[in-house]
């Protein structure tokens, strides 16, 4: 099995940490290649039975920046062309404004969107439950997976979910 995945989310939610966790020692960042193409390949995770190519989706990452229509168009095309989108958030009882901005851009996307609640090591079960409850109200996520990218908690489950969508 092989396919394409993109990790989106506000700055500091843990996107790089998650990528590094998945890749570990076998990290193969090719981000120094000139970005002449629309999508930047960030890394490729290769195992015996599957290969996952992680693509960057510029434009979605910076909700505060005023974006040209072209960037938004490209970003949305990427979202529609990959096999799964990982939308990373921090646990938050109230849906974060920046997250809402990203969610608005996901409205017409047909690709499965997996909500990844990162940094669960920093919050109580109650706050995690509220996060799941409130984010579920604003978008129909294909799956919701709580993880700690830093500690590696539940990241195998996330990988299973990714692979099942390839
Ligand atoms: P990015 O901007 O989305 O790429 O976020 P980074 O991967 O750079 O992470 C931002 C900060 O959050 C760093 O200080 C990370 O160490 C921290 N961080 C990432 N994942 C976790 C996690 O699961 N738990 C905790 N406690 N901190 C995390
Ligand atoms: Mg980063």
Automatic annotation (TrEMBL):
Its main location: cytoplasm. Residues 9-16 are annotated as: G1. Residues 56-59 are annotated as: G3. The keyword GTP-binding applies. GO terms for biological process: ribosomal small subunit assembly. GO terms for cellular component: cytosol; plasma membrane. It is found in: Cytoplasm; Cell membrane. Residues 1-166 form the Era-type G domain. Residues 35-39 are annotated as: G2. It is a peripheral membrane protein. Residues 147-149 are annotated as: G5. Residues 118-121 are annotated as: G4. GTP binds at residues 9-16, 56-60, 118-121. It comes from the Bacteria. Keywords: Cell membrane, Cytoplasm, GTP-binding, Membrane, Nucleotide-binding, Ribosome biogenesis, RNA-binding, rRNA-binding. One of its GO terms (molecular function) is GTP binding. Belongs to the TRAFAC class TrmE-Era-EngA-EngB-Septin-like GTPase superfamily. Era GTPase family. An essential GTPase that binds both GDP and GTP, with rapid nucleotide exchange. Plays a role in 16S rRNA processing and 30S ribosomal subunit biogenesis and possibly also in cell cycle regulation and energy metabolism. Monomer. This is GTPase Era. It comes from Caloramator mitchellensis.
